[in-house]
Design brief:
By secondary structure, the protein is mostly beta strands. 9% of the residues lie in helices and 49% in strands. This is TonB-dependent receptor.
């Protein structure tokens, strides 16, 4: 798909177009009629119930019926349908949601997400608890652009709201059974029961299991078996999920409602499949490992698990002046994500990581919402939240892969890939004797020790470094860093919509947020380097995280507790911010509204989870947006447009950077960025039997300021480069056709999503990472680019008048081979930049029944 021409006057042009449309469409004064084939939703994006077409915010909303039609199981499935929302997720416990090009790429707990996920108006906190299966959902709302006023912290890019169904006063239920490819089995059940005239119960359960979808050869794990045995065939990418929800709703009077909710989620998956882009690391593939959609090679048994529990109490009290709402919530989860980061079975590239998190989260929100006699709508509120979180990050290597780590850094400094440049006489990692890089590290980090020991051994320092390196080959190497976080947030906000005239509304909102973070890091050397000299003890040593971090006294000595344990190196900081919004909207007719808004967003600063660097600054965004919402031609056509222009200050980016010596470390840097784009959403009931949907998103983004760390060069400066992982163009076309039968209805659904090529991990230089021309690797189009793709989904359903339904679906009908996350990642450190594939064609049969 071709790029659109850049428009430097995008916002001005959009305003002109919208005003032109407004004048033309204002003539359409058709009376309200029943919508044929078009679903018009009510949403609560502004903390009150409103028709989505009358809310001056760019919102994409999905009802339970719509989610079922497209087969959406969780938020990840909404990315294809939602312009401006990217959900190319490869990890359930570390998902990265992206709205209009903005996301958080830090896997540590020192930073916060940029997209806020809310479940029944409770902030889901860490991303580890955000990606859960839809289970008896009423609707999902995707709010695009900063939502700093009504939702507050960590919604600088936007917010996603999941609203589950409340218990009601009738007995009803439903269930769905799914069987599909890759041995997929799923059961979903819902039951609603009135216990008394005032008390109602609703419960749901979801059980889902699916085998892996990537063929792989698994070699022995070199940490456990260094004999180089034969591989066996496995499937990677299996999933197993069990989740449930229960709710009680008590309505003792017409003015009081209490809703208690509880949910749990247990997940046991394979970690993301990874493919190495370093052809020299493949051991048995005939194509040299250049096909990320072929057979993988692995030497790790990975896993991804989660246990989650959440509960909340919502109280709604009708007062003379308005509705008073209180939401008290507690959530807790623990996760483990043990991942193979190199995507190969080559010992010289071996790199695994394990991320373990344990979080407790408490929040309280109180708000008062009302309408004056003059029609002014207002909301006032306050929130409090506390998060207690512990994270353990483990990096696992072999001594051979640490050797590659060192060689790779030297090649990077020359701007060369892991395979070097044979035409220039520069060998790659696999061309150098094992131990070359490790010996170099020893010489760089321990010059005095080597000088002393070499005199005892009667050899040169260089020779002794070689002997030490060779003596330690074949050993596993593990480094562990612990983080501790105690974060508290306070906020107060108001939002007022004043009717200037019958058609013109002015909305003004403001939120004050105060975030206080107490953070600790603890890391000590867990490994030793043996010295091949009589009587010389092994030497504690560390490479991956650079140094040790723990609390020290004024003399530099470790501070120990009563049991002799080291204490974390502690840091603390507080960030405050006022985030306003101003909106002017004009209701031209009952079916046409335009708006212009200015809003600010904020994400608190934080701490580097893998080092004791000073805190990084808070992230701020200013966004200007214009939009139009319309329902035309007797409500047969819904057409919504929005255009925006944003500027980010201190956008938080995680990157592996050089520090002292030759050892790179992870650091979070603050950069500036800008973006402009527009989005279109439309739905057309072409006939009484045919409904068409078309969505489109365009985004032009770039880094506008990119400060360099010590040891970086001009090649590392990404000023002017596009933001990572975001296509410039994306569109979706869907069609639904209905055929009446004697005892029911046939429903045919077909959709196609087209995604433009995009910058991959643009915080790395692909010239340094790839061993071949990127265009030769399927899924890549060139330096720092991931190939675009087209996905087709189809679904055929028969719905009986007896309240049962049978469906057959196919996702990725054409079996498109595409890359989700581009080259780079942790494996880049050992010369094994890797890719993660998208899902192949999958099909299934569903049977559901309501009663």
């Amino acid at each position: 798909m071709k790029h659109l021409t850049q428009h430097p006057t995008l916002i001005a042009s959009a305003v002109t177009a919208i005003l032109a449309c407004s004048q033309a469409m204002a003539q359409d004064k058709s009376e309200d009629k029943e919508v044929i084939g078009i679903e018009v939703l009510e949403v609560t994006a502004q903390k009150r119930v409103e028709n989505i077409q009358q809310v001056p915010i760019a919102i994409s909303a999905f009802s339970a019926q719509n989610l079922r039609k497209i087969g959406a199981n969780n938020i990840n499935d909404l990315g294809n349908l939602t312009p401006g929302f990217e959900t190319n997720i490869t990890s359930a416990t570390q998902p990265k949601f992206d709205i209009r090009g903005i996301k958080t790429n830090d896997f540590g707990i020192g930073a916060d997400p940029a997209v806020g996920i809310y479940v029944d108006d409770v902030y889901a906190g860490r991303s580890g608890s955000a990606l859960m299966n839809f289970n008896d959902v009423e609707r999902v709302e995707v709010l695009k652009g900063p939502q700093g006023t009504l939702f507050g912290r960590n919604t600088a890019a936007g917010a996603v709201r999941i609203i589950n169904k409340k218990p009601i006063d009738i007995t009803e239920g439903n269930y769905r059974i799914t069987l599909g490819s890759h041995d997929k089995k799923q059961f979903e059940g819902v039951y609603n029961l009135p216990l008394t005239d005032e008390l109602y119960f609703r419960g749901s359960i979801n059980l889902s299991d699916r085998d892996g979808y990537v063929d792989a050869l698994r070699y022995p794990d070199p940490r456990k078996d260094n004999t180089g045995g034969e591989p066996h065939k496995v499937k990677l990418g299996a999933e197993n999920v069990m989740s449930g929800r229960a709710a009680l709703r008590w309505v003792p009077s017409e003015t009081l409602e209490l809703v208690w909710r509880a949910e749990f989620d247990e997940l046991d998956n394979d970690a993301r499949p990874a493919y190495s882009a370093n052809s020299s690391y493949y051991r048995s593939q005939a194509d040299g490992g250049l096909n990320p959609f072929g057979v993988y090679e692995t030497d790790m048994d990975t896993l991804e698990t989660r246990n989650l529990f959440g509960t909340s109490l919502e109280i709604n009290k009708e007062l003379d002046i308005g509705t008073l709402t209180s939401i008290t919530a507690y959530r807790r989860f623990n996760t483990e994500n043990n991942t193979e980061d190199d995507g190969s079975a080559q010992t010289r590239g071996f790199f695994g990581s394990n991320n373990l998190e344990d979080q407790k989260y408490f929040s309280q929100e109180i708000r008062l919402t009302g309408v004056t006699d003059g029609g002014t709508k207002w909301t006032f509120g306050t929130t409090y939240a506390n998060e207690d979180i512990h994270q353990i990050t483990v990096a696992e290597f072999m001594m051979e892969s640490l050797d590659s780590f060192a060689i790779n850094e030297q090649l990077k400094a020359l701007g060369l890939p892991p395979t070097g440049a044979p035409q220039l006489g520069v060998p790659g990692i696999m061309d150098m004797p094992v131990g070359t890089g490790l010996a170099g590290y020893l010489q760089s980090l321990l010059p005095n020790e080597l000088a002393y020991l070499s005199q005892l051994a009667g050899v040169s320092s260089d020779e002794l470094a070689w002997r030490i390196a060779r003596d330690n080959l074949g050993k596993p190497w593990s480094e562990v860093t612990e983080n501790f976080g105690d974060y508290t947030s306070y906020a107060a906000f108001f939002d007022v919509t004043y009717p200037v005239t019958e058609k013109l509304d002015l909305t003004v909102g403001l939120r004050y947020t105060k975030d206080k973070k107490d953070f600790g890091i603890l890391s000590r050397y867990q490994n030793e380097v043996t010295i091949p000299l009589p009587g010389v003890p092994a030497m504690p040593f560390g490479l991956a995280f650079g140094t040790e971090y723990y609390q020290r006294d004024a003399n530099g000595e470790a501070v120990l507790d009563a049991n002799g344990n080291y204490q974390p190196f502690a840091q603390s900081n507080t960030w405050t911010k006022l985030t306003p919004r101003v909106v002017v909207d004009y209701q031209w007719t009952d079916n046409l509204m335009t708006y212009i808004s200015a809003a600010s967003g904020f994400k608190a600063g934080g701490f580097n989870s893998l080092g004791a660097a000073p805190p990084f600054d808070q992230e701020e965004v200013d966004n200007i947006e214009v939009g139009m919402k319309s329902t035309l031609f007797d409500n047969r056509l819904k057409l919504n447009l929005s255009a925006y222009d944003y500027d980010y200050t201190n956008l938080q980016i995680l990157r592996l950077t050089g520090s002292t010596g030759n050892i790179p470390v992870y650091n979070v840097r603050n950069v500036d960025a800008a973006g402009k784009g527009f989005e279109l959403e439309s739905e057309w009931a072409a006939t009484d039997n045919l409904v068409l949907n078309f969505n489109y998103a365009y985004l032009d983004s770039e880094y506008t300021k990119y400060s360099l760390f010590v040891g970086e060069t001009a090649d590392d400066d990404l000023t002017g480069s596009p933001l990572a992982g975001v296509p410039k163009n994306r569109w979706y076309l869907g069609a639904d056709y209905f055929i009446q039968a004697d005892n029911g209805e046939w429903m045919l659904h077909l959709d196609i999503t087209s995604v433009d090529e995009r910058a991959t991990a643009s915080d790395v230089n692909s010239v340094r990472l790839l061993p071949v021309n990127p265009a030769l690797v399927p899924g890549l189009t060139g330096e720092n680019r991931v190939e675009g793709y087209d996905l087709i989904n189809a679904r055929v359903s028969y719905r009986s008048d007896d309240d049962w339904q049978l469906s057959f679906y196919v996702r990725n009908l054409a079996d498109e081979e595409y890359v989700l996350s581009g080259f780079g990642g942790q494996g880049e450190n050992t010369g094994s930049a890797n890719l993660s594939p998208g899902l192949p064609r999958m099909w299934g049969v569903e049977f559901s029944q309501s009663f």
